[in-house]
Amino acid sequence: MQNEQTLIHRAQQGDQEALAQLYESHFDNIYRYAALRVGRLEAEDITQVVFLKALRSIRSFKWKNIPFSAWLFRIARNELIDFLRKKSKQPTVPLSKLPAIPITSDSNPHLVAEHSLDIEQLRGAMSRLTEPQREVISLRFSGELSIAEVSSIMNKSQGAVKSLQHSAIAALRRELSKGGG
Q1: Same domain flag for 141 and 128
Q2: Buried-most residue among 38, 45, 85, 144 (CB within 10 A)?
Q3: Tally of CB atoms within 10 A around 122
Q4: Are residues 3 and 86 in the same domain?
Q5: 94-111 per-position pLDDT tens digit
Q6: Above 50 in pLDDT, residue 169?
Q7: Structural domain of residue 86, as residue ranges?
Q8: Nearest to 126 by CA among 142, 115, 110, 144
Q9: Alpha-carbon distance 36 to 167, whole Å?
Q10: Nearest to residue 47, comparing CAs of 118, 145, 136, 142?
Q11: Which of 50, 15, 10 shows the shortest CA–CA distance to 153?
């Protein structure tokens, strides 16, 4: 793959191939970040919106000592904040009323169930963290960003990000060790 700066320059000139390469190289991290916060289906929608917004405004992107991924994560963070704000105003449906998740013929039902339980347990434990702690954990581990990148996205010092990460990991460890989730 080409140098990311070259790809971005090409994308800013309207090169569709460069845009596709940027999408492919960043999609998984943005999706994982969103999925940890809101779930799979919503994360797919949010990720698509993030890339649509990035596409619309890529010409305004300027290198300012932060990577392109940090710019994308800032867009994703804003989308998540908007989504969660809107969702808090909508009525909810109990889980028992939702349709079952289809399992394909080549899926191992035991593994699918275990994986779903692990994710739900983690999401449940994360729900007991403070909002800034959830944000740091999502950006650092789902988004695979550095402390410096998270610091830039959250507009916090690197020391504050490290402290939030430490307290969040300790809280998650406590929750998960007692079977929280």
Answers
A1: yes
A2: 38
A3: 17
A4: yes
A5: 544 444 445 454 555 555
A6: yes
A7: 1-92
A8: 142
A9: 18
A10: 142
A11: 50
Among the three residues 92, 121, 141, which one is the final residue of a domain in this structure?
92
Domain with residue 153: its CATH number is 1.10.10.10
Interatomic CA distance for residues 55 and 59, integer angstroms: 8
pLDDT grade, residue 181 (50/70/90)? very low
Q: Are residues 74 and 113 in the same domain?
A: no
Using an 8 Å Cβ cutoff, are 22 and 59 in contact? Answer: no
Answer yes or no: do 77 and 157 share one domain: no
User: Dihedral sign, CA of 65, 67, 71, 76?
Assistant: negative
Enter the DSSP assignment of 174: H
- Model pTM score: 0.66
Taking the alpha carbons at both ends of the chain, their separation in whole angstroms is 40
Instruction: Supply φ then ψ for residue 15, to 5 degrees.
Output: -70, 110
Distance of CA 103 to the CA centre of its chain: 25
Q: What angle do CA 151, 78, 138 make, to 5 degrees?
A: 55
Structurally, how many domains does the chain consist of? 2
CB atoms within 10 A of CB 96: 5
Amino acid at 131: E
- Residue given tokens 């917004």 in the structure block: 53
